[in-house]
Design goal:
Blueprint (H helix, E strand, L loop, with lengths): L3 H25 L2 H34 L9 H32 L3 H29 L4 H13 L5 E7 L2 E8 L6 E9 L9 E8 L4 E7 L1 E2 L5 E5 L6 E12 L2 E11 L1
């Protein structure tokens, strides 16, 4: 990530910085010379655009972390708007390469005018992309949200935490931030003597009867500390959710513990 961000910015700067030079050559140079400059720029631009897209996708994947967070967070909505602007910019670039450039080669009277209009379109799209990028810099990325909620759920700072005794075990469910949207759910299991138990697996069933949402079965994953964690975007509505923890202790022992979780 340390190298990806500056390289991504450098590739974008190359593209944006070349536009005024192309504009000047189109206005001042004969069509043959202008065509030669455009072809030379296209060769370099192909490498720059490839790097730009590869690095952009890498950064987005790292920051989003969970695909569902694209349409469940403000960061995701702004990122999608930026991606639309980038797609339009690539479409203009393709138009320049496959339509406007051949017009310059043919010494067409309209070739320069078409290319100049396309460059102005690129300017406008770059302005939109830069605006969206600036907005993203002011919004907490989903990756940070996931890390914060996980630390809260696993570190005893969850907004909801409750322990239920079932058979010979005590099961604790922690939910952070216990608000509509993304939540981290952590499950801890101890025996009656308070000794930590390492279950074989933990599944969670989430339902909201008041809204007609039937149980959604989700598998929690064991973290490095032996705790089971599930990152949920399912708790999208406020209300009192029923969460049943299905804890498989071993091949012969399973316990199901119900929790009533208020989501604000």
């Amino acid at each position: 990530m340390r190298c990806a961000v500056p390289l991504h910015a450098l590739c974008a700067a190359f593209w944006l910085g070349a536009l005024p030079l192309l504009m000047a050559s189109l206005r001042a140079e004969p069509p043959d010379d202008a065509h030669r400059y455009v072809v030379r720029f296209s060769a370099y631009a192909l490498v720059a655009v490839t790097l730009l897209l590869a690095l952009g996708v890498t950064i987005a994947v790292v920051q989003i972390e969970h695909v569902a967070l694209l349409w469940r967070t403000t960061y995701g909505f702004v990122l999608m708007a930026k991606l639309v602007a980038v797609a339009l910019l690539l479409a203009v670039a393709a138009h320049n390469k496959w339509y406007a450039t051949p017009l310059l080669a043919d010494d067409s009277a309209s070739g320069k005018a078409v290319f100049v209009r396309a460059i102005w379109a690129e300017y406008l799209l770059f302005a939109a992309i830069l605006a969206f990028t600036a907005m993203l810099g002011q919004i907490e990325p989903p990756r940070a949200v996931v890390e914060r909620d996980t630390r809260a759920a696993a570190g005893g700072k969850a907004e909801f935490s409750e322990t239920q005794a079932q058979d010979r075990y005590r099961v604790t469910l922690s939910v952070a931030p216990a608000a509509a949207g993304h939540n981290a759910l952590a499950v801890d299991v101890v025996d009656v003597d308070g000794r930590a138990v390492a279950p074989r697996e933990v599944a969670l069933e989430l339902s909201l009867p008041a809204a007609g949402i039937e149980p959604l079965r989700r598998q929690a994953e064991r973290d490095a500390g032996g705790r089971f964690i599930y990152h949920s975007n399912d708790l999208a509505l406020a209300g009192r959710w029923r969460i049943d923890a299905h804890v498989l202790i071993d091949d012969f022992t399973k316990t199901i513990v119900p929790f009533d979780v208020p989501i604000r």
